[in-house]
Amino acid sequence: MFHIFQYQPLRLITQNSLSSMCLKLMLSRPVAFAQIWKSWFSSHSLLGKKNIILMGPPGAGKTTTGRIVGQKLDCPVIDVDDDILETTWNMSVSEKLQDVGHEEFLEEEGKALLKFSASGSVISLSGSNPMHSAGMQHIKKNGIVVYLDVPTTVIMSRLKSKETDRIVGLSPGISLKDLLQFRKQFYKRWFDIRVLCGGDVAAEVVAEKVIDAVKRYQDSELESFVSTRSDRSGRSREDSHKLYFSDVVTQGLALDGGLFVPERGLPRFTAEEWQGLIEVTYVERAQVILERCIHPADIPASKLAEIIETAYGENFSCSKVAPVRHLAGNQFLLELFHGPTASFKDFALQLVPHLFAYCIPRSCNYLILVATSGDTGSAVLDGFSRLHDTDKQRIALVNFFPEDGVSPIQKSQMIGCQKENAWSVGVKSDFDFCQTAIKQMFTNSDFTGFLTVEYGTALAAANSINWARLLPQIVYHASAYLDLVHQGIISFGSPVDVCIPTGNFGNMLAAFYAKMMGIPIRKCICASNENNVLTDFIRTGVYDLRGRKLISSFSPAVDILKSSNLERYLHLIANEDGQLVTQLFNQLENQGHFQLQKDLLGKLQQDLVAGWCSDEDCLAAIHSVYSTTGYILDTHTAVAKVVADRLQDRTCPIIISSTAHYSKFAPAILRALRIAEINQNPLSQLHLLSSYSALPPIHWGLLETLKKTGNGDHQVCAADVSVLMSHIETLIQNHFM
Q: DSSP letter string over 105-146?
């Protein structure tokens, strides 16, 4: 049995001579000595008794990278092929493979791994080790498995000039590409950390990335969160301890009323790393991006992969999940409506319920509060209805929506999506009241404390104020750019603009975050309807709600005056000055307005451009696009189309976010198509639209929901926070008690 337990220094130095050298250096050059000692201690404390285990396909560079990592950390390096297998068998790997065949080889290889143990070493696995379950379980017990993720095209190019007679599973009738794709499932099963390795990245750079990734893995404290209203030290007045991803997912809103943001910002990908994602699927892109945004101490990579595959698998009607379609000229549509409830909200709300269920403690029940101006309601109800039954027993949800402020089909959908643990409540007010009421309940310590003590129930939020809601939106903005590169429309590095119908600013903020992470987005164009407070703010720096009343429009999801996620953006451009953010939003709350300083307005206008359009222009755009292309835009996408036509300079492609399927707004669409008589029954309206044989076809999920559920009952409440609080208490009593 192989045992390697102690660090082996590269040079042998006697204890006396080492002490003498250290003393001389410490006395003559104390700063240099301190730096060398710090570097040595950091390297050795990084490993301790753990091993760094490098895993990846043949040609990934595991052996070369392992040697460099071992040299940098001054620790033993073990190559499984050369140091374990060939030593054990007394023959080369290729000879053994020819001798026993592929299946027996895997067994023999696994047995050799089971007899091996090491400590404080860098171990380079063979490309086929991960296919032997028992062997991997054994070696992983004392190690951190690092997956060197190299694009398949790069691996195939590297292996062209090498002998492939030692690749297990490669035989006549099985292509190298198919074999590499088949093996990915095993690599994804075992890794703790993924390191992206592009085609032209030097082994020295990969080794540094491995070490950095291991440091991140072992130090979750680097990825804490702060409130947008915290002071410069990162702590809010009410909160003196650090919070992590699991905490902010369950807590939703900071105790001081601010929104959570990562203390050290978002990770940045290199151009090579982004280019490595051009050929892969949407699910794989999501896994890579979210792994870098969620620390494995909160959700391990293997569990995160399972959650993502569940969220974006069979629940979406399009295999591309978020396809990009050419519309006209240099305009492209990012279709975000292929999820089960026909809007972009599905991207977050098919994922977040599973993240939430994993992160919350088992000792407490949770009631999730949601405010919606339309699409969030059915999306969150559908998402939480897909949890396991055991999770439904401890997680319930209340969806507040403006009773007269959503489309008839949206309302039918929200009512029809109610489940045994999820309810829709109409409020006799607008979205801004619903959202403000939820914030007040979260910050009412008497109310939240009473629910915890009396009913063992904590409140949580699933609106876009919850940090976890933003992350999946970053993914589709990045993916859209990569799709344009993949389609040959642009080369990587060429800029694009994005135009997004904007209400609560979450979707726009996610696009800006994608830009910060390395996606070459030039301008973010905010598109509003007649509730154009954001347009005025971006143009003037004055956020003014005085005398403004919400106007009901054909694009109800952007019928919003208070854009909550704007607070996160202002915190960012204000260099994380929580005191300034607090001052601005307190003034907005108390006086109904605030004004940005000139320097901040300048920063904002470098990033954002804004415009708005009327209902008449919106309907005209729908008619025009359908007449010329046969494609039907929904009302929100039409708003963005109008604004894009007015503001884009046509020097680069523009990606317009198509945030909902037109089926959800059938009356407005039929009016835009100039249908004289419109039946008031939502199902009849969809059948009429389907007769047009337009692109895209009628949404399958929406049609099925309306067929099955019709228009059920729901609770309606007055616009009074105390009434809503009383209603919540009743629901908790009925569900959890």
A: HHHHHHHHHHTEEESS-EEE--TTGGG-HHHHHHHHTTEEEE
